[in-house]
Amino acid sequence: MAANNADRSSICPTCLQTFSNFQGRRVHERSQHPLVFHDTEVAALRTDVKKVRWNPEELVMMAAFEASDPWAKNINVRIQAEVLPHRSIESIKGARKGDTYKALVRQTTSSPRRAASMPAPRSPPLPVPSIRSESPTSAQCNTYCWLSFHSFNIWEYCLRGPQPPPRHLKSEEEVHACM
């Protein structure tokens, strides 16, 4: 039952017929006013709120900000105010609990040269000119190349091209040979 909880009366809003309870009204609406009934069901089930995933750029910006002052108090509030105003404090707390985020903060803290070279907290990452213009995948990496100080080298990851399958996976010929 996806009907709005605020309208749990026993009176049908379409034909104003009265029923003994809300359940009776819903049975009536479904059988006598199916278009209106299903439209209200769809509207009640449609939610504009969705779980927003963390973008790697946001995590890097947050880690760089935290690494710039590791002894700061109320770091979650400061991150929200100065780096990610569109994120809630609870979501920032949750993101900071992850092991990958903690490793990123440690890595950024251990190399102050890299933390100093980070862009300003609210500026979006700027594309960097391609080093290897003949590579078709380098264009895909331009946006993310400033993340190269992350725990992996993004250029190597993007430019190495398609990889063979892991050894534990058998080829099609090997699978058919076993049959």
Automatic annotation (TrEMBL):
Low complexity composition bias: which ranges? Answer: 110-120
PROSITE patterns found in the cross-reference section = ZINC_FINGER_C2H2_1 (PS00028)
Q: Where is the C2H2-type domain?
A: 12-33
User: What domain of life is recorded for the organism?
Assistant: Eukaryota
Q: For the region Disordered, what residue ranges are annotated?
A: 108-137
What name has this protein been given in UniProt? Retrovirus-related Pol polyprotein from type-2 retrotransposable element R2DM
